[in-house]
Amino acid sequence: MLLYIPIIFLSALFMQNSLPSRGLLGLIEGVNIRNSNMLVASDFLFISLVVFNLFGNCEKYLYGYGKYELLRYKKRTLILGKIILKSFLSVCVFCLTRIIIYAFLLFIRNEKIIDFTVADISNYIFTSILSLFFISILQILVELKFSSFAGVITAFSYYIVSTILGGYFIEKEQYFPLLFLTTNFSMKNRTDLISADFVDLYILYLILAFAIIVCIFLCRKIIKQKDIF
Fold first, then answer.
1. How many C-beta atoms surround the C-beta of residue 92 within 10 A?
2. Ranges 69-73, 79-83, 105-109: which has the least confidence
3. Which of 65, 134, 220, 227 is the most exposed place for a label (fewest CB within 10 A)?
């Protein structure tokens, strides 16, 4: 994790340099509606850490020496649960580390840090963890079904497509497609428009939870049927 801190620092620096002078609210608001290239790049840099941190976590149990650990268990779902728990904890650590580093960078640059409400920061933490956790579960699902490389490509592709299309649909005031583009859920300047004109913010939480549960169910089904011999 210590090796990732400089990259999270760079991601926060890129984001702050592309925003007007502001505190943590800049991080909470996320990529602006017009898809600023610098903001998208800073977010992509952060997402890449989460994705590569999980690279090969499933595949190591399906091939080579790792498969013998899988065979020791009566239920393969125990291994899956271990992988999912590690994924969730990693996402939590990454999200909280990003907030701390972003605030620290504001401090050393003599910028205002607290310019948000408790609801703002709590919603950001909750939706960030859930949206990143969904991407990680999606990565696990594809890795179990195909390969670790396919899992990484899928996770990256989903993030890029979801973020860029999110900005496009909001500019066109077409909010329904955003319900299927979950990376936008943690960006306040997007969810404010969605919740005000289309659907309540808590419905977005339910959508994320439902998507995660479905992916976990599919992961469980795949790993139970996986031929590892």
1. 15
2. 69-73
3. 227
Residues contacting 168, CB < 8 A, separation 6+: 35
Query: Residue ranges per domain, the chain?
Result: 2-225
Q: Is 36 helix (H, G, I), strand (E, B) or coil?
A: coil
SS3 101: helix
pLDDT computed for residue 91 by the predictor:
93
- The C-alpha atoms of residue 30 and residue 161 are separated, in whole angstroms, by 16
| Residue 65's pLDDT band (cuts 50, 70, 90) | low
Question: Any idea what DSSP says for residue 64?
Answer: T
Q: 2: Cβ–Cβ under 8 A, 6 or more apart, which residues?
A: none
pTM value > 0.70:
yes
**Residues 191, 127 contacting (CB under 8 angstroms):** yes
Query: Any residues with CB less than 8 A from the CB of 200 and at least 6 apart, and which?
Result: none
Place of tokens 């592309």: 18
